[in-house]
Amino acid sequence: METDFASPKDQVHMVDQVLARYKCDSNTAVRFKLVQCHKDILDNGKEFHPTFSHQFFGDNLLTYMGLKHDGEVNNKPDPVLSVIAEKYPAGCMTNLDEFMAKLPEEAKFRPMGELLHSYKCNDTEYEIYKADVTTPRLKDYHERLQTFLLWFIDASSYIVYQYYAYPDKIRPRISQMLILPPFQKQGHGAQLLLTVDKFYVQDQQVLDITVEDPSYDFMRLRDYVDALRCRDLAVFSPENIRNGFSDRMVEQARKELKINKKEKADIEKLKVLLKPEEFTATATVQSTHERIQYLDQLYQELEEHYKKTIERIAAV
User: Where is the Histone acetyl transferase HAT1 N-terminal domain (predicted)?
Assistant: First the structure.
């Protein structure tokens, strides 16, 4: 008589299959809709999902074979709404009828602050406003808006500030830039960053503009925006670029565009590679030995970063 025993690995797989129907990714379970009128409530095409819901609900708990537990198991469901409400100091609505009754009032909303820039995208006009803590109605609006940061920006915070730069300058630091999923990949991030840069360039007290712990996507966006801005400076003419990177370029970019040295070095590389033949030639000179020497993985990531930025600039 033969008896088949499942291996520990197979046992884990079988347990996972049984439990799979009881599991749900919180990023998938949570759904957002930007509601402007009653019909938007029923329009599932307007739904989008968060990216970092673990900042509300925590990370997964991994279990191990043979783990023993002597305590009492709590079989009550987590109070999901209470967990979310804790992150909303301004409060939130859980009654759909009450929410619907408020919609006509929300339709009267007008942005607060000073209009800095307007532009068109997909036949829709967008406006960018500047406001601060003294702007009427901003505090309540900002408290509600900033809760989106926890859903869409990893390790985000609510802090916005300016650094003092010795002896008499300031160094504005961009803390976060939030573009909600329905509006991503449409050029809004570039428009917003260009507007921020243009505003601070006019301030004689500003030394340069920095970013707090930028993500990979934001670094790529900033390279693109900085390259567009540098392209308009005479010092970045094709003739000067062919002669190589110079201290004069650094000083001109810092003076005219408030760009720091790290950004300037990145822009110089992008400008050199803007022509297809130059990019191809540069991409092929790297030998396998050189790539290993400078950490192959990091090199390829950086190369891809520049390639995508160059393609976007070339399309303008």
Answer: 22-60, 63-154
